[in-house]
Specification:
CATH topology: TIM Barrel
Strand order of the largest sheet: 1-2-4-5-6-7-8-14
Number of strands: 14
CATH superfamily: Glycosidases
Strand content: 15-25%
Helix content: 25-40%
Number of domains: 1
Shape: globular
Largest sheet: 8 strands, parallel, barrel
Structural class: alpha/beta
CATH class: Alpha Beta
């Protein structure tokens, strides 16, 4: 989903499930959380779905043109997650295929009608076998190399064809004694991504477009610090990057607002060797080895412990700076999420998507999303 997937962030997360009912978020809004098990077996109660409307399980892989399990533990994990529908009737459980590292076989798979059919057949079998509610296509990215993957100019049209054919298969399956199947896509934040796709056509076939409106700044590729998930552009930002601009670009490309899910990160980015100018914002810096970017780790280990929190009111984004260690951290927190929820409601977007569930074990961010997206009449 995000390049943060590449990092070895294997740690135990355990927290109990709750007995409350599902969220009161209006039916027209979605809260989609990616669950990335990292090859581990989920334990009962490790995922609490009461604040979610959809789980996207990351990731299924593509091998010999077919959709396959990403890890041996996935089958039992699917059983754990689909059982959560008993306590939250609105919940749907999808599998996400691809991601930053596993997108290398998309171009070959989508190349011809025959090769697409092999994948589509396997996807249908996969969804039935594991009792899933649909498929999220996370091809990073059509017509672009991504993490050094094969790509072709014709990926642009083949991506559309793949989604159109999957939609036809899903619609046909819905006519049988079977619940509706959902089709979604994860899309990057950038004009180049839009240029290599036919988003107006794509939008006809998918239920939601999950915008990865984060990683605008990354320490391993940006020698200057910046907000990695700002809502609006700060005038001083050299990139003028923002979630708002990405949303507007996708709307201009033909995606209806109600099909757009605004992506938010449950993790942060850090730079070291940052001079104490503007509290480190938009200053030269270098990547920090061993940085634990989970929101929970940032809140527990950095806030108030040598790191001072600052608020960029122009970008509606928080950041941390340690003047002694010269470390700058960009992250998401409840205040910035509340602003994004307000934005989602004002812009009449389809809801929110986040990467990823285990970054927020105490559910502070999830509770903020739940409160921010509930209609005034349904608030407690």
């Amino acid at each position: 989903m995000s390049r943060i997937c590449c990092f070895a962030m294997c740690f135990a997360v355990a927290f109990s499930s709750h007995s409350f009912g599902a969220s009161r978020i209006p039916e027209k809004l979605e809260v989609t959380g990616y669950v990335f098990a990292r090859g581990n077996a989920l334990t009962p109660g490790q995922v609490d779905a009461k604040y979610l409307t959809r789980i996207n399980y990351a990731f299924a892989n593509i091998r010999d043109g077919r959709m396959v399990l990403g890890a041996p533990t996935d089958a039992q994990n699917f059983a754990q997650l689909t059982a959560l529908r008993n306590g939250n009737p609105r919940l749907t459980v999808l599998v996400s295929a691809g991601g930053w590292l596993w997108s290398k076989n998309f171009s070959d798979m989508a190349l011809t009608a025959a090769s697409r059919r092999v994948f589509e057949d396997s996807a249908m079998e996969f969804l039935v076998q594991y009792d899933l509610d649909g498929l999220d296509i996370d091809w990073e990215y059509p017509g672009m190399p991504g993490a050094g993957h094969p790509y072709r100019a014709e990926d642009k049209q083949n991506f559309t064809a793949l989604l159109a054919e999957l939609r036809a298969r899903f619609n046909a399956a819905a006519k049988k004694p079977h619940r509706r199947l959902y089709l979604t896509v994860a899309m990057g934040a950038g004009d180049d991504v839009i240029a290599h796709t036919e988003m107006r056509k794509v939008a006809r076939y998918v239920d939601t477009v999950n915008l990865m409106t984060y990683d605008y700044y990354e320490a391993d590729s940006d020698a200057t610090t910046g907000h990695h998930a700002p809502l609006f552009a700060n005038p001083a930002d050299p990139k003028k990057a923002s979630s708002d601009e990405t949303v507007r670009d996708y709307e201009k490309a033909g995606v209806p607002a109600e099909k757009i899910l605004l992506g938010v990160p449950f993790y942060g980015r850090a730079w070291g060797e940052v001079t104490d100018q503007n509290h480190g914002l938009f200053q030269p810096g270098k990547s920090v080895a061993g940085f634990n970017g989970q929101y929970s780790a940032i809140a527990e280990n950095l806030l108030g412990q040598g790191f001072t929190r600052y608020w960029d009111d122009a970008g509606k984004a928080p950041y941390l700076y340690n003047a002694e260690k010269h470390i700058f951290v960009s992250y998401e927190d409840p205040e910035s999420l509340a602003e994004k929820c307000k934005y989602i409601r004002e812009r009449k977007l389809g809801g929110v998507m986040f990467w990823e569930y285990f970054g927020d074990p105490e559910q502070k961010l999830l509770q903020t999303i739940d409160a921010g997206l509930r209609s005034e009449s349904s608030k407690f």
